[in-house]
Amino acid sequence: MTHASLVLDEFIPYRLSIASNVVSDIIASAYEALFGLRIPEWRLVAVIAEEGQVTQQRICTRTRMDKVTVSRAAIALVDRGLIARSAHSGDRRSHLLALTDEGRALYADVSPKALELEARIFRDFGSEELAGFMTMLRRIEVAALDVLSPEDAGA
Q: Where is the HTH marR-type domain positioned along the sequence (predicted)?
């Protein structure tokens, strides 16, 4: 019986990771240089801007970042005066995060730059191709999460 051998450069999870890392590195460099933001900090700002007030747990769930990363980013953003923490009336163990006026101004400055970078990275792809790619990425995410389901883990 012959077993298929793994060729790393043709292994889809590896290719996804490499492509993601290259794109993230380019974006991280731009955000750091232009706005003094690390990627986790920008993600927090963007999620809070979209959702208004939000808990750190919700940010973890939405962005798939771990609690420590989210907590550190939140502390950095509070220290910079970009987000504010307030008591969560529904859960005394958590806080709600919201953008300050300075945070909203930063978001208004960063968003066009983020969209510009996205456009530059994907400029050679047609709109139908990009729409299909987004659909496929969402399907990959769902399929990967299904692998983690208790039924698949034998639990």
A: 1-142
Euclidean distance between CA atoms 111 and 83, whole angstroms: 17
**Domains, the chain, ordered by start:** 38-115 (1.10.10.10)
Sheet containing strand 95-99, strands side by side: 54-55, 95-99, 83-87
| Pick from 65, 58, 15: nearest CA to 41 | 65
Supply angle C-alpha 112, 118, 123, rounded to 5: 120
| Beta partners for residue 32, in sequence order | none
CA distances from residue 86 to 16, 28, 53, 83, 102 in whole angstroms, order as listed: 38, 29, 9, 10, 17
pLDDT at 155 over 60: no
